[in-house]
Amino acid sequence: MVSEGREQSLYVFQDWKNNKGNFKSRIIMLLYRISSLIYRYRILRFIFFWYLLLYKFALGWLMNIGINSSAVIGKGLRIQYGFGTVIGSNTVIGKNCNIRQLTNISAKMKENGSYGRAPRIGDNVDIGISVVILGDVNIGNNVTIGAGSLITKDVEDNCVMVGSTATVLKKKYIISVEGT
């Protein structure tokens, strides 16, 4: 499963290669990486508060996407189109994930108005169109989530999830054959 305190690289172009051919996604990820770097250090937040405001405006109003600066996103996130996608605060996303448009990944609001823990997504996860991942869930590595799925419970490694309240369609088994 996903480790809680995942480290982020300081290299702001770490998603450049994965978003080849999609200039909008390259710009989105570059702006996010800079805002995330600023957000991690209190002194930088104070000095560059204007950048964080411009970041919210540029992504929200101009590109119609929302990625919170406090989200922890691993190297190589690929955003395919991205229109209407929201990644909430404190969400953890692993390496080499793929997200399509109209996807919402965020914490669930409790009855008292506070928010619970945000989702934690493993490495090499492929998220389809119009997927909602809500609440304190762990999504394992090498998972595929079908279009229109709602994820509210933990997902094991190597699964394919589909449906309005997502269920396992199949379990992918990876067999490694070593030469003798």
From TrEMBL:
**Statement: the UniProt record of this protein carries the keyword Transmembrane helix:** yes
Q: Which domain of life is it from?
A: Bacteria
Which InterPro entries does its entry note?
A: Hexapep (IPR001451), Hexapep_transf_CS (IPR018357), LbH_SAT (IPR045304), Ser_O-AcTrfase (IPR005881), Trimer_LpxA-like_sf (IPR011004)
Transferase: is it a keyword of this entry? yes
Q: Which residues form the signal peptide?
A: none
Report keywords, A-Z: Acyltransferase, Membrane, Repeat, Transferase, Transmembrane, Transmembrane helix
Q: Where are the transmembrane segments?
A: 43-63
Q: What is its EC number?
A: 2.3.1.30
Which reactions are catalysed by this chain?
L-serine + acetyl-CoA = O-acetyl-L-serine + CoA
Q: Which PANTHER family match?
A: SERINE ACETYLTRANSFERASE
Q: Which family does it belong to?
A: Belongs to the transferase hexapeptide repeat family.
Q: What is this protein called?
A: Serine acetyltransferase
Instruction: Tell me what organism the protein belongs to.
Output: Pedobacter jeongneungensis
